[in-house]
Every structure is written in structure tokens, then in C-alpha cells.
Amino acid sequence: MALIEAKNVKMYFPVQRGFIDSLFKGETTFVRAIDDVSLQIEKGETLGLAGESGSGKTTMGRLCVRLLKPTEGQIIYDGEDIADIRGKELRLLRRRLQFTFQDPTSSLNPRLSVGKAIADALKFQKLGTPAERKEKAEEVLEKVGLSPASSFYDRLPHQLSGGQKQRVVFGRAIIMDPEFVVTDEPVAMVDVSIKAQLLELMLDLKKDLDLTYLFISHDLATARHVCDRIAIMYLGRVIELGDRNQVYENPLHPYTVGLIGAIPVPDPKARRSEAIPPGEIPSPIDPPSGCRFHPRCPKCMEKCKTEDPEFREVETGHSVACHLF
Amino acid sequence: MTNALRIQDLTVEYKTRRGVARAVDRIRLSLEENRTLGLAGESGCGKSTLGRAIMRLVPYPGQIADGNIYINIDEDIPCKEGDIPKGEVDITELNEEQMRVLRGKEIAYIFQDPMTSLNPMLTIGSHFVQMIRAHDPEIEKEEALDRGKEVLEGLGILPERVTDYPHQFSGGMRQRVMIGLGLVLRPRLLISDEPTTSLDVIVEAQILEQMAELKKKFNLTMILITHNLGVLAQTADDIAIMYCGRLVELASVENVFEAPQHPYAQALLLSVPDVTKPDKKLVWIPGAPPDLVDPIPGCMFNPRCPMAMDICKTQVPPLIESETGGLVACHLYGGK
Predict the structure, then answer these.
(1) Phi, psi at residue A174, to the nearest 5°?
(2) How many Cβ atoms sit within 10 Å of the Cβ of residue A15?
(3) What would the DSSP string read from start to end of B279-297?
(4) Does A159 touch chain B (CB under 8 A)?
(5) pTM (2 decimals)?
(6) Residue A54: what pLDDT?
(7) In B131-144, which positions are buried (b, 16+ CB within 10 angstroms) versus exposed (e)?
């Protein structure tokens, strides 16, 4: 059974308007950040969520851990719909679902020692005495590779390198012994020379703590190295989903083909073979009719302009939303 | 082939409260005309500082402490405070006014962050008009605008959008405007600092392709500063790898990727994820670069180097010719 399942989830954000505007134009317009997405995450897997900026991947991640409340649809965690829960129930749920934010520098309080930053997660959940919390935080620091923990506990974020800060962020996520962690671009801000080290740490933690990951990344090369399955998003929709080898070796959706073809390969002999899709991602306020990719699609047919393609399975475990299949 | 750029023992230092940090340490390199040199390395290795030193725009408190930068100029350039003769010119000797004339016209620089490099109060067109008229006050506003439109069109931006403001443009389009501003005066040397780093892969690929076309059209010599080795593999002719302000390896792109000589270059390449090789075992370089204010003796890479020898801890390795025809600074290859 899936650990987390999103069923027809929609997330619309109202567009802020000025006072005069709101007098003259009747309806509020919405940014359709997530528009009817269904996704299943199995226990113990790493699901990658990839796409360009503005495709809604971070919003989807936030919905999965209920940092956002979906406009419509269900989010089923462990057999229970968590889309509408609130208050104490939601706070208890947060112990099991964690999120690491994109930029480790701006997600740590510059005046709070990193040990305290980790321990405070327990304080907000009203767990343990101060001494117990400190002990547990030191244990976590060791676990994320910041040892000896006693020398790191009292350091402030500016005394750490980017990679070490990212480790602190991981530590804060795992102190509650969660089951499911959403990591939003965990290695986007670090140098390539230590990227592999952090990815390895993530995989080690997963093994030790029996975690399930939702790995959000725009870097498809990195995603290929860590994910079991991968979902490609475009303008608020999941347009292709499959086993990583299926998606990378046999991409079906023309957008996926273009996206994978556009990745710069670190080999001067490997030249680009696929044409790059023209233009840029359109506005999610007023998405194109029919298939959302049709204005940029090299294989666009008449049907694509009017009819929204259904998301269906074309081979075992490999689904795509495209009229070609 | 003449050299468009020749740098000799360039040293740039930042004087900070903690002491003097040598961000660029006795760099020596030359760049042939019409080639693209990729400048790679981790953050803090001095690649941006080197790029800015060539423009003589090292931000305060940095300054060029030593060395010479020669660029090749086609024709005499008139200037209020002393004309610049054609031929090889040492730009470290020029005065501010002469430098101002050169910037944009001979050497252009595309800054890292397109989001903050454009003036939010000016239309895209005004950016072009201001820039062109700063170098040629005689020119009519309309003509300047037309030249801007022409360059933008080559970059895939509709000419009528010159009346728009930067906030109406997406990140990719702002970056295209930055490139357009860099190219409108037809410089011979273009330095672009992480031109596609904040962009998505598709937009990145589009822009790199357009840059390659423009490079051909305008006969440009280019320096591309980036930490993304994938981008360099696809665009550069030569690659220079920097570590802690020093040049550790310089070779053609094929040789760097196929037979990297310096242990740092080797390790760096092994750490790059490759989408075509899912089974590649990613490795990392243990430790962190040393503090530049308190540099270590010998080769700066020695504490992290798997092949460090005794000599590495005491003597700075000289830059010597490597077996693959490039340059390398490592004691492993000494004495040959």
C-alpha cells in the first residue's frame, strides 16, 4: 500500500489585486499551481519530482506534508485523509512528516546555535526535558556527520560551510524520527565536489531510519542518481511518471524528451541530439487549452489544442499524459 | 594566431580586517582569438575575481596587487585623457577614463545575476540607449534603440518589447537582455560570469545555443566562468581549472575530460553527476579548501589530495607543460 497518496489534488492561489481592480472586475483570478494531480508514494522509495521552475513541484511537496491545505482533493497518509485535519492532530502528524527547505542558509536562524535549532524541533512538540533534548540533538548531529557533536552544538550557522548547514537541516528533519521526508532541492546550493557526499548521507539516513523520500529537484542528472521512480511536472500537472530507467532511457512525453535532451552532459563528445523546445513555461494563471504543452510541442496535433490528454499507464509502472500514446 | 588576451603573473588581493586574502595568485594564461576559455572551480576559488580583474572591476576592498593584463586592440582608440594605441595594451597601466572607453567596446562583462543587474526603473530600451550613448554621445536616440532591437532579435526577444520594464521579463529573458547589452557595442572579448546558473535546463540550452551563434557572428573571444562542468563540456574550447586562486590545470576541453592531469581536476570530474551514466559512482573531495587569509605552504590542495607527497607540503608546484599538451601545476609531473 502507498504510504502517501494524493488524489485529484488542486491548489489554487488567489491573485492579489489592487482595490480599484477588485471594484471593476468581478471574479478573482487564480494561479493554478497544482491542477488535478494524483500521485502515490510507496513506503521506502525515493520518488523524484522534477520540472522547470514554476511547474509546481515545491507546492506539491508542501501539500504532501500539509504545509499547505489543498483547495480540492484528498491526501491520504497511512490510510487516512489528512487534507482537512488541523490543530493538535496536525501538530502530531508533523512528527511523522518532515520537510527540508531549499536554501540551508536562509532556513537557519543566524542567531541560534545549530544544536539548539535542532533541539527546538522537540521543544515545539513538547517532548522531553531540556537535558534530554540536548542529548538527542547531539546524537542527531553525530548521525548527520557533524562530529564531535559537542564542538558543533554551540556553533552559529555562519561558522559552518554550506554543506555543513545542509547537514544541520537534515538533522532537524530527522530528530523526530519521521517516516516521510520531502527534500526540496537539497543539493542545489552546494559545490559539485561535496554534492555526492550529501547525497550519500541522504541515502544512509534513509537506510538507517527507514525513510521514504520525495526528492524535489530541477537537476535531472542528480535525480537520476538518487531516485527510484521519477515524476515529471509541467505547469501544475504530472505529465510523466515511471521507473527512473524507463523515464530516462525511454522518455515518452515530448516535454520529457526535450528536458532530458537539454541537460548538459559532462562529455565534450556527446553532442545534443534532441531539439530544444522553444519558448518558456506559460503563466499558470491562464494555462493553454487542451494539452498544456501544445504551444511548445514539436509533435502537436489538432486534438492537442482542444482535448486535455488523460494520464494513463502505457507500460507497467510507466504513465504519461499525451495524445500520442 | 594572435592572442586576444595575455595575463602575466596577475595577483589580486582583498584586504580584510582578518588579513589579506589572495583571491588570484600569480595567474599566467593567454587566450587565442575566437576561442572560448572555460574557467572552472569551486565557489571561492577566484574565478569571478579573475574575470572582473580583466575588466579592472574588482570590487572593494580588492585590488590588483601585481601583474599585467595585455589585450590586443585592432585600431587606435581616441580618448580624452590620452589615446590608446593599437596593438598589445597593458590595461593595468591605463587611467580610469581610458578604461571606461575600453569597457563595453573592447571587453564586455555579463554579470552573474540577471535579477539584480538591470535597473528596475528603466525600460529595456533605455538600458541600451544609455549604454550606447555613453560611448558615442553623438548618436541619435532612435538609432541607438534600433541597434538594441537588432541585438535582442538575435536573442529571440521581440523588438517591440524594448518599452517594457525588467520586471515584465522572465529570468531567462533578463539574462538574454544582459547578453544583448554586453554585445551591442561589438566587443572583441566577452567575459560571462555564470550566464545560465539560475536558469532551467531548457532555457539554459536555448541561451547557450544563441550565445554560440552570436559568438560566430560577432567574431568573439569568450571567457565563460561557471562551476557547471557539463556546460563547459558543451561550449568551451579550452578549460582552465582554478583552486584557491591558483591555476592548477589548463588544457583543451577533450583532454581535460578524457585525461585530467591534476588530482583536483580528476576528483572534480568524478563528482559530476552524468545523466547518461546512471551507474557512475559519484565521489567527493574530502575536507574543504583552506582559508585564503591564512594560506598553507606548498600546494594548496595537499591536505585534500590522495597523492600528496612530502614536497607538496613545502613547495608550490610550478605550472609546467603536461603530457597531453596542456599546463598543469602538480609535483607528480615534475622533472619530466
Answers:
(1) -95, -5
(2) 11
(3) T-------S-PPPSSSPPS
(4) no
(5) 0.87
(6) 85
(7) bbeeeeeeeeeeeb
Q: Grid coordinates in use for B66?
A: 601585481
Could B230 and A52 be called an inter-chain contact, meaning their C-beta atoms sit closer than 8 Å?
Answer: no
% of chain B beyond a pLDDT of 70: 99
Chain B residues within 8 A of A221 when measuring between CB atoms: 230, 273-275
- Read off the amino acid at residue A117: A
Q: Boundaries of CATH 3.40.50.300 in chain B?
A: 33-59+79-236
Q: Which CATH number does B33-59+79-236 carry? A: 3.40.50.300
Query: What's the CATH number of domain A2-85+188-275, 1.20.58.480, 3.40.50.300, 3.10.50.40, 1.10.10.10?
Result: 3.40.50.300
Partner B, chain A 217-276, Cβ-Cβ below 8 Å: 218-222, 224-225, 244-245, 248, 258-272, 276
Rounded to the nearest 5 percent, the helix, strand and coil shares of chain B are 35, 25, 40
Q: Which residues of B touch A278 (CB under 8 A)?
A: 206
CA distance B62 to chain A (A): 22
Spans of all domains in chain A? 2-85+188-275, 104-175
Q: Which three cell numbers stand for residue A296?
A: 511548445
Mean pLDDT of B283-287: 86
The DSSP element (H or E) to which B88 belongs, if any, is strand B87-90
Convert the pLDDT of each residue in B162-220 to its tens digit. Answer: 999 999 988 888 999 999 999 899 899 999 998 888 788 888 999 888 888 888 988 89
For residues B275 and A248, the answer to whether their CB atoms sit within 8 Å is yes
**Residue range A308-315: mean pLDDT, rounded:** 90
Predicted complex ipTM: 0.84
Most A-contacting residue of B42, B45, B197, B234 (CB-CB within 10 A), to test interface = B234
Looking at residue B336, its pLDDT comes to: 47
A to B CB pairs, distance under 8 Å: 122
